[in-house]
Design brief:
alpha/beta; 6-stranded mixed sheet; 5-stranded mixed sheet; globular
């Protein structure tokens, strides 16, 4: 269960009335690695193993996709929700010293909270030979929307979806935080040996720098969002070899980086870098 019923007082045109709403649950999850505190992230209960695996992967703490760490539950609250875990990883597989760099609270809406600098991930530029048909993007968001059970109940959760180049759905994950939803998707793909099949990642809301770095860490060449990207996200995506698509609504979208990887079925291939002087028009 990732939603709960709450009562409130509804005001409309000068009148008050009692109302009962369904809200998304938010719980703090403390993550330790080999007994050393790593971070506290605010998250929606459920799929904690996927969240932890994806977070450690995208943060370049533990990158192996063949070794499976033991995730011990070390705490629960009165409602039974998991509040703390300890991840057991052989020390030689822990890729960097994280102590003191992210051991503070990370808000569900901010994937970079707790960091001391904008670290570049050590992964190389995403290599890709595939071309994405933009007409599939609308279908991708439709598929994700059909599985957003928590959002339909509460209106308070984000979703991320993973797809093949042909638009086949591999995973949908929901969470109160956009970054957590992405980490849950990446963790699910790793845990189910599907990471090599994913080519496109969709996210609800906007695309920020942190979302791009997570897609880059997972070598996902296409990234699509319902809302706007930030300038830093576009710059990072261009450098990473990722085609960033935003404002994906009503069968329209805007490609902001690496447009040559996106095929316009009517007008042919769009080529050339996206910069301040040249922009891809929204597909009609």
């Amino acid at each position: 269960m990732n939603t709960e019923r709450y009562t409130g007082i509804f005001y409309n045109e000068g009148k008050f009335s009692p109302v009962e709403d369904i809200l998304a649950i938010e719980v703090a999850l403390a993550i330790a690695v080999n007994g050393i505190p790593f971070t506290v992230t605010m998250q929606t209960p459920g799929n904690e193993s996927d969240l932890v695996r994806g977070l450690l992967f995208s943060e370049n703490i533990f990158r192996s996709i063949t070794d499976h760490p033991v995730i011990d539950i070390t705490g629960r609250n009165e409602e039974g929700f998991i509040t703390s875990v300890n991840v057991l990883i052989p020390p030689h597989l822990v890729l960097k010293d994280f102590a003191g760099t992210r051991n503070v609270i990370s808000a569900s809406s901010c994937g970079i909270c707790g960091k001391t600098s904008l670290d570049e991930t050590e992964t190389e530029r995403v290599l890709n030979k595939e071309v994405l048909d933009p007409s599939l993007v609308t279908e991708m968001f439709d598929q994700v929307g059909n599985q957003q059970k928590a959002f339909k109940q509460s209106g308070g959760t984000h979703a991320a979806g993973a797809f093949t180049i042909d638009g086949e759905l591999l995973s949908v994950q929901e969470d109160i935080g956009r970054h957590n939803a992405v980490d849950k998707v990446i963790g699910f793909l790793i845990n189910n040996n599907l990471l090599d099949k994913v080519k496109c990642l969709t996210v609800s809301g906007r695309i920020s720098y942190e979302i791009v770095t997570k897609a880059k860490a997972a070598s996902i060449p296409f990234l699509a969002a319902v809302s706007a990207p930030s300038t830093l996200a576009v710059d990072q995506a261009e450098e990473a070899g990722i085609s960033l698509m935003a404002f994906c609504r009503n069968k329209k979208l805007t490609v902001y980086s690496n447009a040559g990887q996106v095929l316009n079925a009517q007008d042919g291939m769009v080529t050339g870098p996206v910069n301040s002087e040249w922009h891809v028009e929204k597909f009609k």
